[in-house]
């Protein structure tokens, strides 16, 4: 097997393992910070200045012709694209004295007047003595290579190393701290400088002589860090060698008042920061978090202090930190330091190999404030020798973790697990630094063994923090049937995580305002699946919160309403329309299976009018328990009315049907016919038909009307008295037949009609004619009677 190929595969597998955790986002490509690429460039230091501008410094071997020299480069985000960085000006040399090695450079933040200071250690001085601390102030307009201000300064002439520098926010001052050996031990010293010089003559000037920071104990104090706070205060941190096998982190706060002896600058007493009694706590790194300039907590400022810790009970190192509120207006100086985390928290999680060289920075996003930690981690790499035997090599990488400090006075909250920053060249990446630039933009630098082809180089990567997931398709409201099994899988595209190479989101759910879901409902987050048997309750709404969380604990919540719906009764059979005649009893019992409750519960029934403005007849009664309509129909006019029959369950859900009841009534009828009549011309005609000619089944009083059979009015000579059923009038002296129509009508406008004829005859004959007519009629009558008998 080709060992090179096998080795490469092993690298890829380890890379996949290392890239997990709460990974920030790479913005653009990793760039090589140094222009000069020969030999090694190592030990970067970086700091944010202003207006998205940062300074990165490092030591470069043989570039100045004599050992290591210190070099720097300004970088900033591009104006047209804040996801890329660009160099500002050229790489520049920091030190002018080039004899021997210039090492361990550190750079301050922004000093009033567009300045910054760089300090470093010189291995051998002009006189052949060891280890001085030097400094150089630079000025920049942010658009070109910075210019040195004044000459290179010697801060401490001999036996000094590990210098750190900080600016005092809002002032022209910077403070340099360093360790100096003075037999029989090593102590921490400091000097304060004015970067603008006397009368702003651009010649930096020492404003205090060298003063001793650490206490007068016999223990060694090494590896200082110094941090500028508000109100002209600054704090020193260092390793205190309390015993041969144990180092602790100590601190001392000072305030520059501009006058008095240096002893009067101390604020309170010396404080032991690390609380562990196990092993060593070393290499402190600190950051000032200025919530004051965000308009928050005017009496407070905050800082974090991180360090590496190696326990005697373990072969691994870890990165730890504390979070502090500093109330600089308290009268009692010893009460001004308030440790929000009295016991240190662990910034690193890995227990594999050593975790070393921590750096900490304050990173802001639109949503939160974070402490961002970077450090050098370790991992094992599988290597095959020429005989394909497996061996392991320990290699280093750059790792990071993030903590939410938005709730300033509460313990910082870890955002996900550790992430690996140096993801491309994971062998030999070490000694990282981190600097915030602008909102949610920060620069991580480290020494990288593979960044170029000639030894170590300085790698820089612009990054942004993890983005919380977002809701892109809100989950729709859902319904669960009363007492039935419910299951719902919300769509996979409901949420989005826009971070590159992000892991699948983790889903949890709870009822709004509660920590859990209702007892009947369960949720399988990996399947996005809700399920359970809905309770047998009347319609109830549950507000369900779905939490989508990424590996950095970035979270978004979507809420939907889950309604347990009681199913209304169902109409199984229609109710037929009914008919009834006035004056009779009405009764109707509808079938028990006319309605059905899906939940098989008992139903109650009711009647009503479909028209809310109309009431049902008072005679119509209803017994819901027997499902019976009944009543005696009064004498009334015919009508048809609608009845709404409703079935309601125990949850007041109802279903209705409508049927009609038709009231029928018999119309008047003809009982006896009306005989034809004779009217003689010029003589008075009177005729009254009997009241039993017409009848009414319901004994209602009838009214009468009369007209000619063709619908025309009666002739003028003939009148009809409807109340007396009587015709009266003097007929004309002519021969004519009048076909008469008589109508009987009840109060409901029901009617019956019959016809008879009035025969009108002339009366202009002599008396004998009348006598003859009379005799003829008399004889006719006698004959009729005779025949009858």
From TrEMBL:
<feature type="domain" description="Dystroglycan-type cadherin-like">
    <location>
        <begin position="470"/>
        <end position="569"/>
    </location>
</feature>
<dbReference type="GO" id="GO:0016011">
    <property type="term" value="C:dystroglycan complex"/>
</dbReference>
<keyword id="KW-0732">Signal</keyword>
<protein>
    <submittedName>
        <fullName>Dystroglycan-related</fullName>
    </submittedName>
</protein>
<dbReference type="InterPro" id="IPR006644">
    <property type="entry name" value="Cadg"/>
</dbReference>
<dbReference type="InterPro" id="IPR013783">
    <property type="entry name" value="Ig-like_fold"/>
</dbReference>
<dbReference type="GO" id="GO:0005509">
    <property type="term" value="F:calcium ion binding"/>
</dbReference>
<dbReference type="Pfam" id="PF05345">
    <property type="entry name" value="He_PIG"/>
</dbReference>
<feature type="domain" description="Dystroglycan-type cadherin-like">
    <location>
        <begin position="669"/>
        <end position="767"/>
    </location>
</feature>
<dbReference type="GO" id="GO:0043236">
    <property type="term" value="F:laminin binding"/>
</dbReference>
<feature type="domain" description="Dystroglycan-type cadherin-like">
    <location>
        <begin position="570"/>
        <end position="668"/>
    </location>
</feature>
<feature type="signal peptide">
    <location>
        <begin position="1"/>
        <end position="19"/>
    </location>
</feature>
<dbReference type="InterPro" id="IPR015919">
    <property type="entry name" value="Cadherin-like_sf"/>
</dbReference>
């Amino acid at each position: 097997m080709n060992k090179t190929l096998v080795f490469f595969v092993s690298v890829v597998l380890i890379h996949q393992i290392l890239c997990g955790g709460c990974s920030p986002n790479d913005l653009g490509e990793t760039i090589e910070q140094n222009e000069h690429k020969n030999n090694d460039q190592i030990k970067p230091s970086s700091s944010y200045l202003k207006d998205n501008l940062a300074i990165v410094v490092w030591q470069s071997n043989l570039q100045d012709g004599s050992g290591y020299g210190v070099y720097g480069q300004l970088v900033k985000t591009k104006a047209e694209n804040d996801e890329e960085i660009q160099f500002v000006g050229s790489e520049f040399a920091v030190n002018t004295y080039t004899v021997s090695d210039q090492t361990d450079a550190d750079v301050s933040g922004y000093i009033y007047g567009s300045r910054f200071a760089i300090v470093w250690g010189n291995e051998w001085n002009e006189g052949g003595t060891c280890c001085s601390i030097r400094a150089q102030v630079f000025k920049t307009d942010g658009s070109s290579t910075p210019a040195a201000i004044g000459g290179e300064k010697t801060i401490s002439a001999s036996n000094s190393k590990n210098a750190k520098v900080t600016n005092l926010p809002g002032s022209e001052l910077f403070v340099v701290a360093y360790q100096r050996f003075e037999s029989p031990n090593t102590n921490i010293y400091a000097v304060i400088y004015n970067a603008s010089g006397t009368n702003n003559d651009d010649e930096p000037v020492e404003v205090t002589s060298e003063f001793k920071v650490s206490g007068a104990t016999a223990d060694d104090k090494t590896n200082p860090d110094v941090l500028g706070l508000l109100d002209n205060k600054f704090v020193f941190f260092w390793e205190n060698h309390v015993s041969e096998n144990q180092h602790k982190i100590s601190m001392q706060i000072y305030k520059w008042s501009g006058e008095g002896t240096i002893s009067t600058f101390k604020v309170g007493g010396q404080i032991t920061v690390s609380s562990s009694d196990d092993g060593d706590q070393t290499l402190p790194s600190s950051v000032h978090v200025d919530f004051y300039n965000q308009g928050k907590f005017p009496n407070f400022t905050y800082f974090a202090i991180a360090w590496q810790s190696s326990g005697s009970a373990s072969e691994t190192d870890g990165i730890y930190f504390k979070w502090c509120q500093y109330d600089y207006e308290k009268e009692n100086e010893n009460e001004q330091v308030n440790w929000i985390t009295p016991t240190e928290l662990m910034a690193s999680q890995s227990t594999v190999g050593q975790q070393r060289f921590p750096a900490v920075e304050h990173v802001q996003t639109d949503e939160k404030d974070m402490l961002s930690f970077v450090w050098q981690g370790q991992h094992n790499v599988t290597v095959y020798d020429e005989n394909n035997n497996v061996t392991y090599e320990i290699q280093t990488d750059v790792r990071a973790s993030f903590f939410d400090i938005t709730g300033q006075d509460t313990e910082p909250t870890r955002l996900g697990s550790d992430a690996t920053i140096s993801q491309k060249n994971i062998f030999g990446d070490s000694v990282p630094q981190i600097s915030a630039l602008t909102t949610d933009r920060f620069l991580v630098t480290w020494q990288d063994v593979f960044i170029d082809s000639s030894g170590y180089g300085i790698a820089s990567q612009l990054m942004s923090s993890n983005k919380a997931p977002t809701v892109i398709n809100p989950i729709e409201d859902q319904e669960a049937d009363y007492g039935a099994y419910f299951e719902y899988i919300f769509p996979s595209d409901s949420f989005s995580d826009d971070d590159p190479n992000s892991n699948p989101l983790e889903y949890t759910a709870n009822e709004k305002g509660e920590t859990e879901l209702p007892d009947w409902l369960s949720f399988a987050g990996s399947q996005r699946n809700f399920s359970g048997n809905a309770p047998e309750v009347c319609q109830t709404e549950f507000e369900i919160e779905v939490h989508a969380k990424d590996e950095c604990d970035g979270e978004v919540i979507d809420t939907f309403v889950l309604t347990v719906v009681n199913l209304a009764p169902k109409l199984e059979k229609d109710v037929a329309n009914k008919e009834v005649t006035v004056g009779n009893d009405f009764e109707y019992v509808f079938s028990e299976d006319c309605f059905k409750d899906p939940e098989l519960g008992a139903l109650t029934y009711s009647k009503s009018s479909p028209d809310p403005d109309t009431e049902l007849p008072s005679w119509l009664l209803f017994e819901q328990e027997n499902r019976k309509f009944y009543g005696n129909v009064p004498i009334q006019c015919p009508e048809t009315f609608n009845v709404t029959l409703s079935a309601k369950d125990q949850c007041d859900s109802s279903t209705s049907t409508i049927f009609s009841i038709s009231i029928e009534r018999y119309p008047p009828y003809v009982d006896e016919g009306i005989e034809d009549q004779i009217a003689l011309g010029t003589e008075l005609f009177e005729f009254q038909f009997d009241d039993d000619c017409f009848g009414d089944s319901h004994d209602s009083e009838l009214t009468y009307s009369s007209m000619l059979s063709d619908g025309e009015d009666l002739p003028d000579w003939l009148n009809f008295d409807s109340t007396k059923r009587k015709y009266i009038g003097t007929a004309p002296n002519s021969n004519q037949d009048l076909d008469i129509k008589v109508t009987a009508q009840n109060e409901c406008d029901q009617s019956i009609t019959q016809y008879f004829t009035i025969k009108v005859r002339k009366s202009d004959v002599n008396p004998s004619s009348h006598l003859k007519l009379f005799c003829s009629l008399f004889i006719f009558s006698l004959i009729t009677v005779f025949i009858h008998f």
